[in-house]
Give the backbone structure.
Amino acid sequence: MKLLVVGSGGREHAIAKKLLESKGVDQVFVAPGNAGMTLDGLERLNIKIHEHSKLIAFAKENEIAWTFIGPDDALAAGIVDDFAQAGLKAFGPSRLAAELEWSKDFAKQIMVKYQVPTAASGTFTDFKEAEAYIQKKGAPIVVKADGLALGKGVVVAETIDEAVAAAHAMLLENKFGDSGARVVIEEFLVGEEFSLFAFVNGEQFYLMPTAQDHKRAYDGDRGPNTGGMGAYAPVAHLPKDVVDRTVETILKPILKGMIEEGRPYLGILYCGLILTADGPKVIEFNARFGDPETQVILPRLTSDFAQNLTDILAGKEPELTWLEDGVTLGVVVASEGYPLAYDRGIQLPAKTQGDIITYYAGARFAKNSQALLSDGGRVYMLVTTADTVQAAQSRIYKTLEGQKMQGLFYRSDIGDKAN
């Protein structure tokens, strides 16, 4: 069986690597991928994610069994619909179903309609109205670009001035283009954040281990929001009844609601959650695997990943099995300056061996050389599985300290909340 993964980041590296480990899978192609992926035997294609017709032509010519869609912007552009129209299978939601992610306003409307617990909010296209709402509600308060913004369209404002500045930047300064032409402003929820992912086909869903992402750039959850600086799974201190309550009050109603709206869901559904004094509430939905949570969840899967997804696509019950003990933890190494301006072309250390996995997110080969250079904000991620969080942290941070990197940085407190 030959498979295709669309995307180029660390998430797609983890997905493609896991698929290649599956029995019966001969080749996994990644479009466009990045240079670091080739070190794991993955085959890159010089096709960009928006070139749907080229991807479809390749899938047909090479008898690809099915295609896994990684990034949010590809799903929002209707890539799954285009594959279906061409008679090809793709694992991911349709454009209409993916609106749960690509419009925060739509997600809010659906949650209110189907009584899914989330933060109280207002949606605005007029700056003066947004400013008045912020003044009325006070701070802290959260300002979100309605559309996709590479994980950077959310401002958790500590003051009214900061919130007004964020709304001004989105609505009047065009900071996020069309994505910020409409903003969702919502109450600041207090509690512990966690992520819950599920494989979904209609109302059928299959949970993955819980995970905890670290969004802020610097230690102690300081600095700007990023796409994610590290993660661990499972969140062992999270009571089982919290997950059960999340399923009953959030997952089941939203999947049923999407069917009633004529948008049945197929693919990965990410629930970004916060455990408040009133129980779990939704911060956001993503219509795909998260990054970096994927890199700590998939190493815990002990069943055949390709077969599991083949079964879900066919509407069959998958035989999913997961590691029951220990913890999987990963730390992202990013370019200094990320998520703002940063340099490229920094030489990267050699790929780790043994019990530490390296997933590459932004890497390219040097000219006429196999030396890897940085080529993005988040560059690579080291991931390991150990008996305890402390053991995993020790192994990862000892390795990172030995890599003597320049022009790169990482957080030194990933997983501390679990201790």
Q: What stands out?
A: The first strand starts at residue 2 and ends at 7. Residues 4 and 72 are 17 Å apart (CA to CA). The chain is about 30% helix and 25% strand. The chain has a mean pLDDT of 96.
